[in-house]
Design goal:
Blueprint: H1 13-16, E1 19-22, E2 38-41, E3 44-48, E4 54-58, E5 79-83, H2 86-97, H3 101-118, H4 126-143, H5 152-158, H6 160-177, H7 183-197, H8 204-223, H9 234-252, H10 261-270, H11 272-289, H12 295-308
């Protein structure tokens, strides 16, 4: 997901979560000693740095048997997440509270490896979105729910470097988390990296992307009158991510070609209102943008709409 700021349509997770990651441990010399302000779990603590910016501090057992007000042991600090928004802090806390430390550590290793391999900086938001995706993929794998990546061939062809990093990421996940994920997940990880390296700020494509997403959100809100969308939820974040990937595919001329007609028929019956809303979006894209949504795109949109409209 690159996350460029959408300043004109509400503070969604897309515009408030920007993190500066401190890769090194705090020095024992000089600087403010971090104090515990909130214990998220045994491995995550909230504190404030010497500029009085709120930070999340990660380290194995860093919060175990600790109390608010105690100093944080610099030797136990693995990574510091600096956030520029209280809402960002809240979202990161929500995610990290439910994530095993090993998943967060694997994500850190993958991102650092990707930065070195690509020779470029990535949007700091990748730490949040990739950790969320990896944990979700692990849970699906354990439950035997395999999702095929319909863009696998295209990603291999057009984003070969990122795909190779995705394959190496699967090795890191196997080593850290002792689980083997399928090749499709390497492609999903590659998409996250592609998105994190993009920078659409100030371009006409950014404005067009913003406009198209706003239009889709308006259709959903009008269809589900009375339902307030939680713009700070992880489901909403995933929906925005999906829309960005979809629009990127449209701009690049790629589309999902593998139609799962049977699954779509099931969704029509199970999520009737969400499917009808998706049809409105389908008609809108066809009429105003001359974009045809495939059956798979209709299916994915229906699932995402279901998630973001459930309170």
């Amino acid at each position: 997901m690159v996350f460029f700021a959408y300043k004109n349509w509400g503070e969604s997770i897309a515009d408030v979560i920007f993190m500066t990651i401190a890769a090194n441990k705090l020095s024992k010399k000089g600087g403010k000693r971090l104090e515990i302000e909130k214990i998220i779990n045994n491995n995550i603590i909230r504190s404030s740095d010497d500029l009085n910016h709120e930070v999340l501090v990660m380290g194995c057992g860093i919060g175990y048997l600790k109390k608010i007000g105690m100093e944080i042991d610099p030797e136990k600090i693995d990574k510091i997440y600096r956030l520029q928004s209280k809402q960002a802090l809240s979202n990161l806390e929500t995610l990290f509270t439910g994530l095993p430390l090993a998943t967060i550590q694997a994500t850190n290793d993958i991102v650092e490896y990707a930065k070195t391999s690509l020779g470029t900086q990535l949007s700091d938001n990748i730490y949040l979105t990739l950790a969320d995706h990896i944990q979700f993929a692990i849970e699906r794998e354990k439950e035997g729910l395999i999702i095929k990546n319909a863009l696998l061939w295209e990603i291999k062809q057009f984003y070969h470097h990122e795909f190779m990093i995705g394959q190496e990421s699967l090795e890191i996940i196997q080593q850290k988390l002792k689980i083997n994920l399928p090749e499709d997940e390497a492609a999903f990880i590659a998409l996250h990296l592609v998105s994190a390296t993009q920078d659409y700020s100030g371009t006409s494509q950014a404005k067009q992307t913003m406009t198209m997403i706003k239009q889709v959100l308006s259709i959903i809100k009008y269809h589900f009158i009375g339902i307030e969308l939680d713009e700070h939820s992880l489901h909403y974040d995933r929906f925005i991510t999906h829309m960005k990937f979809f629009i990127q595919r449209v701009f690049s001329g790629n589309e999902i070609k593998d139609d799962d007609a049977d699954f779509l028929v099931m969704l029509k019956q199970k999520y009737k209102e969400e499917y009808l809303c998706t049809l409105k979006i389908y008609d809108h894209f066809l009429k105003h943008h001359n974009i045809h949504l495939t059956n798979d795109e209709v299916m994915y949109l229906t699932i995402h709409i279901r998630r973001i409209t459930q309170n």
